[in-house]
Amino acid sequence: MTTAPGALAGIRVLDLSRILGGPYCGQILGDHGADVLKVEPPGGDDTRTWGPPFKDGVASYYHGLNRNKRVQHLDLSDPAERDKLLALVGQADVLVENFKTGTMERWGIGYAQLSERFPRLIWCRVSGFGADGPLGALPGYDAAVQAMTGLMSVNGEAGGEPLRVGLPVVDMVTGLNAVIGVLLALQERHKSGQGQLVEAALYDAGISLLHPHAANWFMDGRVPGRTGNAHPNIYPYDTVRTATDPVFLAVGNDRQFAALCRVIGVPELAAHADYREAGGRSVHRDALKPLLEAALAKFDGRQLVDDLMAAGVPAAPVLAVDAALTHPHTAHRGMVVELEGGYRGVGAPVKLSRTPASYRHAPLTPGDAFLAAPDAG
């Protein structure tokens, strides 16, 4: 585990956000070296209660989003506490917040009120729908945004009910978008010397995730439906049965399909007029799937995955969360982090050769002032 300065060493981040999108943004910035000071209300971030499980009264949900930060508590409805915050804002390069629109303005500490006073500050606002427009300023939560941006409509079994994606994908992508926006603004500040407002809205993130369904609809006007585990545009890109465990096939081109057919002993399928090209396989998927599963019925799923991967065919076992987190390759990639005190979490997925991520502060580390020097850029 490296202790070398990260790519964002020297950047000071004031994280005023709660729940998921904003805290996830702050954690990523912290993993890559930024000095992140999180300011929570006296009762703490709401997600401290989002359990079980709990450790010392704090839910795992909170622990998963708030490492590499130091935490203090301020009641921003109190003018004296707001003065303490302003002292920190004056030292920060980046401020991340997701207050309900108008709340910080009512306290006299909104972006428009502070941008002239702190012209280099990059202000990252995470919200449900943005500040204006037909849905502007309304509260947004991940599942509700999944429902209204079309994500639920394409998730689930064909003929079944719409389903929420089984993880907070909209919140997490919003957090990633916030990180991208902050990095773009930091890069631009090197040229202009000026900060700016960065907006990352859950609604925008949900709409942005609609590929390829949006692209399909723009081209042919047909409303996409649910296809279960199968890809809407290519096949076989689906879960299939074997003699033992199901496996996922991710065949993306004709060469891979021919290799698949060769490995499972049905090379004639690769030459069939309906299946030899990608478009035909997608159109005739209802006929192709049972033919593949009939051939797969004599194969052990785990061994088949190894054989297919060796032949250049993307395939995978369908693993549960515990199996994925304890897989040898997960450890090899540094995707599980352990810190003193019993903290374990998911590691940083972006790897930099000279300035890798580091893990310096477990969640709930106290702090009331910035540690790092301000950005010199």
TrEMBL record:
Entries under SUPFAM superfamilies matching the protein: CoA-transferase family III (CaiB/BaiF)
Secretion signal, residue range per the UniProt entry: none
Alphabetical list of Gene3D superfamilies matching this protein: Crotonobetainyl-coa:carnitine coa-transferase, domain 1, formyl-coa transferase, domain 3
Source domain of life: Bacteria
Pfam family, one: CoA_transf_3
InterPro entries: CoA-transferase_III_domain (IPR050483), CoA-Trfase_fam_III (IPR003673), CoA-Trfase_III_dom3_sf (IPR044855), CoA-Trfase_III_dom_1_sf (IPR023606)
Keywords: Transferase
A GO MF label: CoA-transferase activity
UniProt xrefs under PANTHER family: SUCCINATE--HYDROXYMETHYLGLUTARATE COA-TRANSFERASE
Protein name: Crotonobetainyl-CoA:carnitine CoA-transferase CaiB-like acyl-CoA transferase
